[in-house]
Amino acid sequence: MLINDILSEDLRAWFGKGKKGGAGGGGWDRYNSKGERIGKCGDSKKGEGKPKCLSKSKAAKLRAKGGKKEIAKAVNRKRRKDGNKNRKGKAKNVSNESLYLEIPFDQCPQCGGPIEGLDEAKKKKKPKRDACYHKVKSRYKIWPSAYASGALVQCRKKGAKNWGNKSKKKK
Question: What is the reported pLDDT for 146?
């Protein structure tokens, strides 16, 4: 009985029973980058971008989460990951939800409260760079390196004005 069910499986039942638009038949729908349903999955028109096919239940979840904007985000994520419409081979499955949490930067992800000491971290200044730093860094391709660090020490010993200049020999 189980084998018989598998053998009698039909793609029309999976993609919407042949009706116009999968949602009418309870199947899968194609969505565009504006979040609009444009037909049933598998019926792309000429000149159309890479479609994102969503089941009726998954589309309803995304719609409840953020409306058409959320569906549009999922479509755009799909197009970024798998942009070639005519690519042959196995389909690339792309997640409908963003993997990044939408938590404000100054809010703790665990408790939701403000993060202490954030202002001090923002105010932390970059170390001041002296003339030797800039002069040596411009001459060495690989930075930082042992040679460049050694040259920086030598420059600071001699001074930026004198470092790198050849000394005149007395005759």
Answer: 92
